[in-house]
Amino acid sequence: MWEYAPAPESRDIANLKPNYRMFVDGQFVEGTGEPLKTVNPATEEVLAEVSTASKEDVDKAVKAARRAYDRTWSKMPGSERAKYIYRIARLIQERSRELAVLESLDNGKPIKESRDVDVPTAAAHFFYHAGWADKLSYAGYGPDPKPLGVAGQVIPWNFPLLMAAWKIAPALACGNTVVLKPAETTPLSALVLAEIIQQADLPPGVVNIIPGAGDIGATLVEHPDVNKVAFTGSTEVGKIIQRQLAGTSKKLTLELGGKAANVVFDDAPLDQAVEGIVNGIFFNQGHVCCAGSRLLVQESVADELLEKLRVRVSTLRVGDPLDKNTDVGAINSREQLTKIQELVESGEGEGASRWTSACPLPDKGFFFAPTVFSNVSQAMRIAREEIFGPVLSVLTFRTPDEAVAKANNTPYGLSAGVWTEKGSRILWMAQRMRAGVVWSNTFNRFDPTAPFGGYQESGFGREGGRTGLEAYLDV
Ligand code: NAP
Ligand code: MG
Fold first, then answer.
1. Which residue among 113, 255, 386, 457 is the active-site one?
2. 14, 79, 217, 224: which could join 102 in a potential S-S bond, CB 3.0 to 4.6 Å?
3. How far apart are CA 285 and CA 288, in angstroms?
4. Per-residue pLDDT tens for 445-465?
C-alpha cells in the first residue's frame, strides 16, 4: 500500500466569516429567529454563527418574492432572464475553489468531491437552465408556457450547494421567484450563493435565502402566497408536506429517500463493477438519496466479487475532508452518525455478516469506517431502510427474474444500477426495474440534461432536463 503524505487544501480559501445573515429582498439582513451555530463535522468546531428566519421573516421573504415576481421577473423576456442565470453560473465557476472548501468545511465531504462534482455540477445546472429561459416555447408545453409564481423550496444537508442549484436554476429559467430554506447543519454555501446572486445583480426579491430549522421549512411550504413547493429530504417530512398541501392549488414536487439496487450479473467486468459499487455507496459518505446501497450479485460470482470489493474498500482513505487524498470524509452530524450506528447494530443483531475496513479514523469529529454486510436477507432492516451512510448490504440472486423481483422489493424507487456485458439485458432490466433513474455499467452520474426523480416513497416530479421544467410551469 502507498503511504500518503497529507495534502490539505488551505481553509483560508473558504473566506469564512464569523457571522452570516439571511438574504431577503436583495439584502443581507439579520433574521429574528434564534441564531444557529454551524459546525465542522470533521473537527466539531463551530465554523460560524448564522442568523435564522422567524415566521415573520418567512412572510417578509415571500412578500419580497411576490413583489419581484409581479413587478419584474415574470414580465422580463426569457432572453433577459437568461443573462442573469448565465452570470450566476460564471460566478460559481469564478468562486469555485472558495465554494468547494466552504462546502467541505460545513458538510464534511471530501474536497475532491466538492471540487470535482458538487461545484461544477451546480454551475452546469445554471448554464443548462439559462439556455432554456428563452426557449420555453419549444419545451413541449405549449406556445407560451407561464410561470407559477413564488416557489418555496426546502433542501437537505447532503449536497447543500448542488441542491440549491437544482432548485433555483429551473425556477428562475421558467420565470418564477424563489424563497429557499437550506438545511440547519449546512447553511453556508447557500448564503455564498446569495452573495453571487447579489453580485450577478438579480433584481431584489427574485431569490431569497432563509436559514432556519424544520419549523421554518413548514412555515414556508404552508404560506398561502407560495404557488409551488419543491422539497428534497426524508420521506417522513415529504409525507407531512403532502398532507399539508392537500386541497390547496400549490404544485408540489418531492425528492425523497431511496434504497437503490445495484445489480451485478456474472458476465459483468468485475473490476469495473467494483469501482461502480464503491462509487455507488461510498461517494459522499453514502449520504446520497440515490446511493447503490443494496448490492445484488449473481450467486456464481458473489464470492469472487465480494473478495475484490473488500480488497478495494480497504484502500479507501477516511479522514480530513480538506485532504485531497481523502476518499471518505466526515458524517454530517452526530445525529446522523448515531442513526448509522443504530442500523449497523440492527444488521449484526439480525444475523448479517459484517465486514468493516480496518482504516484508521480521526480522534475527533464524526466518522464511520466503510462497512459491507453480506448474508443479508430481504427482510432485514439494513436491506429495507435507508442507512444514509457508508454501509453496503449485499444480497445474491440466481436468475434475471429473481434480480428484478428483489430489486423492486422496496417501498422506494429512486435509482438502480445494472452491470452486464449484454446490451439487451441492460434494456430488459431497465424496463422492469421501478426506479426513476437506471444507470448501466456506471453509477451516480449526474447531468442537468437528465431528469432525476423517483417512484413510490422516493417521491414524484422530475428535476433536470426538459421534463424538469414542467414542475415550474403552468402546463
Ligand atoms: P429532512 O429532515 O427531511 O430535512 C430536509 C429539509 O427539510 C431540511 O432543510 C429540514 O430542516 C427541513 N424540514 C424538516 N422538517 C420539516 C417540515 N416539517 N416541513 C418542512 N421542512 C422541514 O431530511 P434529513 O434527515 O435532514 O436528510 C436526509 C434525508 O433526505 C434522507 O432520508 C435522504 O434520503 C433524503 N434526501 C433525498 C434526496 C433526493 O433527491 N430524493 C436528496 C437528499 C436527501 P432542518 O435542516 O432544520 O432539519
Ligand atoms: Mg455544518
1. 255
2. 14
3. 8
4. 999 999 999 999 999 999 999
Catalytic annotation present for 290: no
User: How many of the other CB atoms lie within 10 Å of CB of 7?
Assistant: 12
CA separation for the pair 189, 172 (Å, rounded): 19
* Residue 446 identity (one-letter amino acid): F
DSSP 293-340: -EEEEEHHHHHHHHHHHHHHHHT--BS-TTBTT-SB---S-HHHHHHH
CA–centroid distance, 380 to ligand 2, in Å, is 32
Please give the share of the chain, as a percent, with pLDDT higher than 70: 100
Atom of ligand 1 minimally distant from the CA of 238: 3
Residues 41 and 108: beta-carbon distance below 8 Å:
yes
Q: If you average pLDDT over residues 155-163, what whole number do you get?
A: 98
Residue nearest atom 44 in ligand 1 by C-alpha distance: 233
pLDDT value at 293 more than 70: yes
Annotation says 304 is catalytic? no
pTM: 0.97
Per-residue cell: 394 = 449485499
269 lines ligand 1 (CB under 6 A): no
pLDDT one-digit tens code per residue, 213-259: 999 999 999 999 999 999 999 999 999 999 999 999 999 999 999 99
CA-CA distance, 228 to 443, in Å (whole number)? Answer: 31
CATH class of 261-440: alpha beta
11-255+455-474: CATH class: alpha beta
CA of 472 to the centre of ligand 2 (A): 30
For residue 97, what is its C-alpha cell? Answer: 475553489
Contact 188, 39 (CB under 8 A): no
What rounded mean pLDDT belongs to the chain? 97
DSSP tag of 408: T
Domain borders along the chain are 11-255+455-474, 261-440
Query: What is the DSSP secondary structure assignment for residue 8, as one 8-state letter?
Result: B
| Distance between Cα 443 and ligand 1 center (Å) | 23
